[in-house]
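Encoded backbone
================
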Amino acid sequence: MIDHVRPAQLDEWFSAAAGGGRPLVLDVREPWELQTASVRAAEGGGFDVVAIPMGEIPARLEELEAERPVACLCHHGMRSLRVAAFLEQHGFQRLANISGGIDAWSHERDPGVPRY
């Protein structure tokens, strides 16, 4: 099952999904988008951040651990939902789509993240 989690609720979701290792935010946006706006390193204190563009996920699936809680992130939440569905089909069980994406992240978690 894929949970839908707002950025402000992410820490709570990670706590509830614990048990499979350190939580992961999987940013599936394109490199130019990451240069424009990214989850800041300081923000990643309770979780890891990995960036793999959506189109590269199938070829790089072995880089991800199916046991870890994974919350997928994109610009507004549509690409990340597709990636979460793909991961679910490949045995990942602790999955969330970050609703509103990096745009909502800027509003709810870190106003220093630029909007685009």
In short: The radius of gyration is 13 Å. The longest strand covers residues 2-5.
